[in-house]
Amino acid sequence: MTTLLPFFILLPFAGFIISLLIPAKNEGLLSITSYLTAGIHWAGVTLFTVYWFFDGHTVLDHDYVTLYQTTDYDFFIDFYFDKITAVYLFVGSFLTFLVTIYSRYYLHREAGYKRFFNTILFFFLGYNIAVASGNLETMFIGWEILGISSFLLIAFYRDRYLPVKNAVKVFSVYRVADVGLILAMWMSHHLWHENITFSKLNNFELVHHQLQSHTVIGVFIAMMFLISAAAKSAQLPFSSWLPRAMEGPTPSSAIFYGSLSVHLGVFLLLRTFPFWEQQISVRVLIALLGLLTAIIATGIARVQSSVKSQIAYASVAQIGLIFIEVAAGFDNLALFHFAGNAFLRTYQLLVSPSVVSYLIREQFYNFSPHARSIEESFPKKMAYTLYILCIKEWNLDSFMYRYLWNPLKWLGNKLDFLTLNRTVIFFIPAYLIGVLCLGISDNLPDFVVSKLPIFFSLIGLVMVLKSFTERKVARLSWILIIMNHLWVALAISFNEHFKYGQPVIYLSGIIVAGALGLICLYRLRSIEGNIDLDQFHGHSFKHPKLAFFFFLCCLGATGFPISPTFIGEDLIFTHIHEDQALLAFFTSLSFIIDGIAIIRIYARVFLGPHAKSMYEMAYRSS
Q: Residue 399 and residue 406: Cα distance in Å, rounded?
């Protein structure tokens, strides 16, 4: 039966490729391809699961292909099937099937009809890779696809300010989840000295033996899992991104943020439960986080004026309860709760436009006040305080800006002295000195060699901080991102076994994507004049092919799984020693800011209202 598992990946991939080849005007063929792909997948999952269940429902695990291997490192694709995979695959394929049928008519004659179905199938591919994965590396491939398809669907109305703005905001939170998973993979390599599979994590004796002598490492890995899960499932303090994600079309809101994508954090906790099962402090923390999120999100949902925001926060509250169930060890209840919540939120979001019109009519002709609520039993001062806090969404958005993004912007703004010419003039001699230090590292004092990786990774972080806050020259921001990767590769090269071949794997995708992206920016500048990053320019309207090509360059520069850099990122962290916490911190922070800065360049240059439009544009939400 293990030979059939790739079918659940290859079918969505084939559907996605076919949808790319269909002309944009052929709406019927596009929609048929989409719902046939999802429908056949759903039928296949159902038959496979029924046969698997009656055949003894033994766990299936198979290593299919090794992408890269050395004496001490092995990056392979592994697929895994158990009850968790079965439930997630069934729910995902069935809801995707329903939503594609619904979207066929809902998006009729929409300008981005083809783009919508391409992205839905791309999301479906990433979802299946993630939930059928047998190790963290395979899961991370699907995890990345889900992140970028989220950005594309939120920014579906690419000629409007707010959808694009919120798409970048959501992607920034997803980037935190990505790096949390990367750090968990980093420390897992040092804990197990191999690419650990989920099948081996179910070996209680193996896990217990390792964690007995590595308690701190075990807690660190579990906390990284929790941060990734909380960011992906919109738990505190990341809850504010979910209603912002509702800027996309209603069908994408239903399948992404009501049902499937938002439950991937729950999936991560369920899949890694055998690892942190014996860490009582972690289980208590997960339960407390879920409880606090459920209470706060319920209050916020009750005062929302937008029906989609109400549904979003109601879903967040239910996921908080699922976190409690997972922490308590009730995995069957959590799976049942996930399926019920996914079906309910999908239904609510799909009928929400009709419900709004019905409620408006009822308000005028058949209005009756609500019965007494629990809030009326509170003291007035407490009730009013809670109401104001919930109206302001407990300032969760402001919290993220104040304590995460604004400090980074403040640091970046201190680097305004770095112009394009000064950056290039500084970089070339400084990097040559760094390469020289690497060549003579055997003759340098051990103390100096131990500090050089931290110093060089700090220079890379400075570069990407400047890129993140650059508001004038898009080319400067892009060049700084490429320089950051070069400094990171140089920093890690001082550690053993990361010289010569492996930096080439890491930098190959970066250099190619960086050079092609820079050519795109120079080409656009020659056509349109100056391109700054102080506003959205919307150049995809007039230059769609150039926008698409530059987007591929952005994917390559972020380490998306279309180039060897994706494997290189894992290699980078594998060669950071477990006692090099500062080096790991600088590198991971660089990766977070790097991804956001790249997407920011793409969004500012190619998305949003067209800069040369003769019509006034609304640049702020009410």
A: 10
Split at pLDDT 50, 70, 90, the class of 622 is very low
The 8 Å CB, 24+ separation contacts for 5-11 are: 5/60, 5/62, 5/79, 5/81, 5/132, 6/64, 6/79, 7/44, 8/41, 8/44, 8/45, 8/89, 8/128, 8/132, 9/79, 9/125, 9/128, 9/129, 9/132, 11/37, 11/40, 11/41, 11/44
Q: Can you tell me which residue has the tokens 């007035």?
A: 380
Residue 586 has pLDDT above 80, yes or no: yes
Cα dist. 530→13, 277, 473 in Å? 39, 56, 8
Distance between terminal CA atoms of the chain?
54
3-state secondary structure of 66: strand
Please indicate whether residue 444 or residue 230 has the higher confidence score (pLDDT).
Answer: 230
User: Of the candidates 526, 513, 530, which has an alpha carbon nearest to the alpha carbon of residue 605?
Assistant: 530
Distance CA 425, CA 419 (A): 10
Separation CA 344–CA 340 (nearest Å): 6
Contacts of 124 by beta carbon, 8 Å cutoff, 6+ apart = 12, 15, 16, 37, 38, 41, 92, 93, 96
pLDDT band at 498 (very low <50, low <70, confident <90, very high): low
**CA 498/CA 504 separation, integer angstroms:** 10
Residue 613: pLDDT band (50, 70, 90) is: low
Query: pLDDT per residue over 6-33, tens digit each?
Result: 888 999 999 999 999 998 888 889 989 9
